[in-house]
Amino acid sequence: MNNSAERFMDIKEIKKLLKPYGLKLTLPRLKVIEIFLSNDRAVTTGELLRIMEETFDRVTVYQTLKSFEDMGIIHRIVGAANASNFALSSIFKKNPELLFKQHLHFSCIKCQGVFCLDDKSIPTVTLPSIYEVHSLNMVIVGICDRCKK
Question: What is the DSSP letter of 92?
């Protein structure tokens, strides 16, 4: 997992971003957000549990993920290995104009990394009117730049 200095936020910024969701900044929430901010790719539940296992129990981690996902703070991506990966939504990446914009994802078959392609929109898909679409997730599978080297 790589650090991404441009994604760094201080505690005041995180509190300000959580306020509209009616969430207080607890230690588990802060730790989860810090883990997401320190990575340039999506994070699996297993990775989160390993990082947080000494400090927080599994139930706390799962509850934090669920509440963040339900509120749209993070989004779930199923990668090439069929594992659930999570990434911060655009507002936490300092791209609030992209908050509700669906975007493409890239899943690497070598390192199993899943990356948000925030600047790549999902093409418009027209379905018969009998369907009610709630979301669309498009994942491109291949080999990432790091694994090609």
Answer: G
Residues 6+ apart with CB under 8 A from 88: 33, 36, 37, 73, 74
Cβ burial of 65 (10 Å; 0-12, 13-18, 19+) is: buried
The secondary structure element, H or E, covering residue 60 is helix 58-71
> What angle is formed at CA 100 by the lines to CA 46 and CA 7, rounded to 5 degrees?
55
Q: For residue 11, what are the CA distances in angstroms to 60, 67, 71?
A: 20, 19, 20
pLDDT digits (tens, 9 = 90+) for 100-148: 467 788 989 898 888 888 778 777 778 899 998 777 778 889 999 999 8
Q: Which two tokens stand for residue 97?
A: 């104009």
Q: Is the backbone of residue 82 left (phi > 0), alpha (psi -120 to 50) or beta?
A: left
pLDDT per position as a tens digit, 72-94: 888 888 876 778 889 888 655 55
CB 146 within 8 A of CB 85: no
Q: Which pTM was predicted?
A: 0.71
